[in-house]
Amino acid sequence: MELRQLRYFVTLAETGNFHRAAERLNISQPPLTVAIRKLEAELGAALFDRGARGVTLTPAGRSSLEIARAALAQADRFRETVREGAVGERGRLRVGFVGSATFELLPRLITSYRRRYPAVELVLEEATSVDIARKLAATELDVGLVRLPLLQIAAVDTRVIDPDELHAALPVGSPFADADSVELGDLAQQPFILQSRISVLHSITLTACQKAGFMPIVAQEAAQLSAVLALIRSGLGVALVPSRAAVSVPQGVRLVRLAQQVPVQTGVALPREGATLLARNFAALASDSK
């Protein structure tokens, strides 16, 4: 039994006439007649009663019509699914992201991506940039949003999609909390809260402080930026955080612009070899959204 035969059967059932069915199918009538006879012979049952004014379904034909329609619908859906998969519009995409991407970048990208690729299943995983790069190389993730530059050589390709700058995150009780800007050197005697040593922000903060003429007094380290902000709220110290964090700063914390700009960048990362079409589509959308 072929899908073509089922399509002929359904069309003939709907038109009730070989001539009209052949016209709808854009074939001549004799091949249609032969195909229906072969289908009935294969099934061992008549599907139509033939009459001078057309055809009507037999009980066997009536009982099987909806199943034939469903089979054709499933076949059409199969073709569409194959097409969507071939062009990166269907499948499962594993996205790694750094915590700071949740402030503004990730929600914006996910909204745009779901609108453009609604049939793709997104699996999101928060991790450090180093872990994301490692998992991309090990094919445990498909694409990543990472803090640049990566601290370790990794088999990934990156491009900048979200340039930003660091601000001083201060408890409201700080004498600099209400200032328009602050010199980084003025914070030299303040205890600093840093992200963990594998974080890019850790090294960027240390480098910025060194350029300002001091080594920070490290009071605490935290794995996630949200934890850093919570510790600042508790009055345990200050930190340098991306300005994008302003949308999620908790009550009791102020972000103040640094007098000397300290740039930071978020990038999209792909494995250097074997990037999937789904991942390349995500990276292209992320790049276009800059």
UniProtKB/TrEMBL annotation:
<keyword id="KW-0804">Transcription</keyword>
<feature type="domain" description="HTH lysR-type">
    <location>
        <begin position="1"/>
        <end position="58"/>
    </location>
</feature>
<dbReference type="InterPro" id="IPR005119">
    <property type="entry name" value="LysR_subst-bd"/>
</dbReference>
<dbReference type="InterPro" id="IPR000847">
    <property type="entry name" value="LysR_HTH_N"/>
</dbReference>
<protein>
    <recommendedName>
        <fullName>HTH lysR-type domain-containing protein</fullName>
    </recommendedName>
</protein>
<dbReference type="GO" id="GO:0003700">
    <property type="term" value="F:DNA-binding transcription factor activity"/>
</dbReference>
<keyword id="KW-0805">Transcription regulation</keyword>
<comment type="similarity">
    <text>Belongs to the LysR transcriptional regulatory family.</text>
</comment>
<dbReference type="Pfam" id="PF00126">
    <property type="entry name" value="HTH_1"/>
</dbReference>
<dbReference type="GO" id="GO:0032993">
    <property type="term" value="C:protein-DNA complex"/>
</dbReference>
<dbReference type="Pfam" id="PF03466">
    <property type="entry name" value="LysR_substrate"/>
</dbReference>
<dbReference type="GO" id="GO:0003677">
    <property type="term" value="F:DNA binding"/>
</dbReference>
<dbReference type="InterPro" id="IPR036388">
    <property type="entry name" value="WH-like_DNA-bd_sf"/>
</dbReference>
<dbReference type="InterPro" id="IPR036390">
    <property type="entry name" value="WH_DNA-bd_sf"/>
</dbReference>
<keyword id="KW-0238">DNA-binding</keyword>
